[in-house]
Amino acid sequence: MRSQFSYLLLAVLGLKNGVINTGNSTGRFADINGIHTQEKVEAIIASSISSLRKQFGAKKIGAVGYCFGGKYVARFLAPGGGLDAGFTAHPSGVTTDEWAAVGGPLSIAFGTLDGSNTPAQRAAAEAIFTTKNLTFQTTLYSNAEHGFAVRTDLSIPQKKFAQESAYFQAVRWFDAWIK
């Protein structure tokens, strides 16, 4: 499938047996790490990257990861991981070691109301990227909670702005580093 911005898209949706909820409830999300182990998720992503290169002839590959997926954008942006650039919004569970291993261009959308990414955690990630002289961008959206880039109350102007802006942040990032 091609996006409206002429990118080949491969959607890796690994929530088998999980709950995808369009409201603000997290459903059975707490179970996700038990169902989707790091080993299983990494095998799916590695296979997807391989398919994009071999079957579709992709020269450059970017990845988008929301929440749970942000960890894997970071992990696969490490040298030899197979990604050339990445974008994540409200990433969860990313360790400082995983941020430190990132070797490619990375853009992150954070929200001020996201308890998964405290000011100290955001500052630590930025310090790592700066020390490494990594090509990176972080944007902090006001009044944006965890999950704002995929589900939020669009009747609140700040939240609508944050969601739309995070989308265009990703598009501009890939225009710069993947196209």
Explain the overall architecture.
By secondary structure, the chain is α/β, with parallel strands linked by helices. It contains six helices and four strands. Strands 1-2-3-4 form a four-stranded parallel beta sheet, with helices on both faces. It is globular, with a radius of gyration of 16 Å. About 6% of the residues have low confidence. Keywords: Signal. This is Dienelactone hydrolase domain-containing protein. InterPro entries: AB_hydrolase_fold, Dienelactn_hydro.
Give the structure's gist in a few sentences.
This protein has six helices and four strands; from the N terminus they run ααβαβαβαβα. By secondary structure, the protein is an alpha/beta fold.
How many helix segments? Answer: 6
Mean pLDDT: 89
- Poorly predicted tracts of residues: 18-28
- DSSP strand (E) fraction? 5-15%
Pfam family, one: DLH
Protein name: Dienelactone hydrolase domain-containing protein
Domain Dienelactone hydrolase: 37-176
GO molecular function: hydrolase activity
Summarize the helices and strands and which ones pair or pack.
Blueprint (H helix, E strand, L loop, with lengths): L31 H4 L2 H19 L5 E5 L1 H9 L8 E5 L6 H6 L4 E6 L7 H13 L4 E6 L15 H21 L2
Parallel strand pairs: 1-2, 2-3, 3-4
Essential attributes:
single chain; alpha/beta; Rossmann fold; 6 helices; 12% strand
